[in-house]
């Protein structure tokens, strides 16, 4: 009678700390993995390594001086963070901004969306072993940062918006520079797709990875490309228009399968739609002031407000509570899309392999600045 066959290794569970220093966690995110070999049995995101008490800082600053703190939340999408706060304050105070200011805001916000998506594509591709797209995408991102610098003097933490409008009018020649860039951008996006969309290695690493259904995405509270990649047509710019988005024509791209590949395709089309929005804003840009009549010292009445914008990563909302004649928020809570979207990570990676987790973290496009706050 032959001896029973003995396996070299017995299957057993182990725990592995992934991050917080790992480059593919896109910041100081730590994920405690429970593994059977390389198969993920469970994943627990651990946050808080970048906590700076931003929401508490809001309570200590006059309303206008809160705006620079918003830059440091999603620090690669400062303009949309500015936009979310000032839209909430204007709703609270009943301020209507001039048409020219609204159009300038939309131009800046959509350029910021393109810039954010370019950075996402570069880092997401590097996570999956594709280095070449980084050199292409940063070529176009650099031009956007040049335009930001020409407008406000900053390239990353921009402070581009004020309660009641925008701090500056567009400088001479800026509209022409932006128009030329927008005309060239679709051809560059086609270049990125040539590199990746039909690439068999890219498809192998993304198709069927990190699948989440529309129902599950809604239950988790996902917004932005992770929600739209699952086929849900939800965009704050359409559902609850702010500034002048109700005057602009654009489509909401959606996916079908809710996987990493669909979320990639959604963001690629979003860049095209953002370029379309910027083109319309440039063509319709009215003359006039860029600031409403706002007192030098802004005082609020007692009340509370919630307002949100469609940031590159999803719904970015500000809940502000004020007291009578206060010059600063009594309480300010931020609803950051990265924080909410990260909740779904365990469900999206459970049963997959460790390298798939890097693909899923990349496809969520998280920034720890707004997760930890």
Question: Can you give me a brief rundown of this structure?
Answer:
The protein has one domain (13-372): Cytochrome-c3 Hydrogenase, chain B (Orthogonal Bundle), CATH 1.10.645.
Notable traits:
373 residues; Cytochrome-c3 Hydrogenase, chain B; 3-stranded antiparallel β-sheet; 6 strands; 12% strand
How would you explain this protein's 3D organization?
The chain is mainly alpha-helical and 373 residues long. It has a single domain, classed as Orthogonal Bundle (Cytochrome-c3 Hydrogenase, chain B). The chain is 47% helix and 12% strand. It is built from 15 helices and 6 strands. The strands form 2 sheets. The protein has a 3-stranded antiparallel sheet. It has a 3-stranded antiparallel sheet with strand order 4-5-6. Strand 2 and strand 3 form a beta hairpin. Helix 5 packs antiparallel against helix 6. The longest helix has 29 residues.
């Amino acid at each position: 009678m032959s001896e029973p066959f003995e396996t070299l290794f017995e299957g057993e569970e182990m725990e592995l700390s992934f991050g917080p220093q790992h480059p593919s966690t896109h910041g100081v995110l730590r994920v405690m993995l429970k593994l059977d070999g390389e198969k993920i049995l469970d994943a627990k995101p651990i946050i808080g390594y970048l906590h700076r008490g931003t929401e508490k800082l809001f309570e200590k600053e006059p309303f206008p001086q809160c705006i620079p703190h918003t830059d440091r939340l999603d620090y690669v999408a400062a303009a949309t963070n500015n936009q979310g706060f000032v839209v909430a304050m204007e709703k609270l105070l009943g301020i209507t901004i001039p048409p020219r200011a609204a159009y300038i805001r939309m131009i800046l916000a959509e350029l910021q969306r393109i810039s954010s998506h370019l950075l996402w594509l570069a880092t997401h591709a590097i996570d999956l072993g594709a280095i070449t797209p980084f050199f292409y995408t940063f070529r176009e991102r650099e031009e956007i940062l040049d335009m930001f610098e020409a407008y406000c003097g900053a390239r990353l933490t921009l402070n581009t918006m004020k309660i009641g409008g925008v701090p500056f009018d567009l400088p001479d020649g800026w509209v022409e520079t932006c128009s030329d860039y927008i005309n060239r951008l679709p051809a560059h996006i086609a270049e990125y797709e040539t590199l990746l969309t039909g690439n068999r290695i890219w498809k192998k690493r993304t198709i069927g990875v990190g699948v989440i259904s529309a129902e599950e995405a809604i239950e988790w509270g996902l917004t932005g490309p992770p929600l739209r990649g699952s086929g849900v047509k939800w965009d704050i710019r359409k559902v609850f228009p702010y500034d002048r988005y109700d005057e602009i024509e654009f489509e909401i791209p959606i996916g079908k399968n809710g996987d990493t590949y669909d979320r990639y395709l959604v963001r690629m089309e979003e860049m095209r739609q953002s370029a379309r929005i910027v083109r319309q804003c440039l063509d319709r840009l009215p003359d006039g002031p860029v600031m409403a009549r706002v007192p030098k010292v802004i005082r609020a009445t007692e009340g509370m407000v919630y307002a949100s914008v469609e940031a590159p990563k999803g719904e970015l909302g500000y809940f502000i509570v004020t007291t009578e004649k206060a010059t600063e928020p009594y309480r300010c809570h931020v609803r950051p899309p990265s924080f909410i979207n990260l909740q779904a990570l365990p469900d999206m990676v459970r049963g997959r392999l460790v390298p798939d987790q890097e693909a899923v973290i990349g496809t969520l496009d998280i920034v720890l600045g707004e997760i930890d706050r």
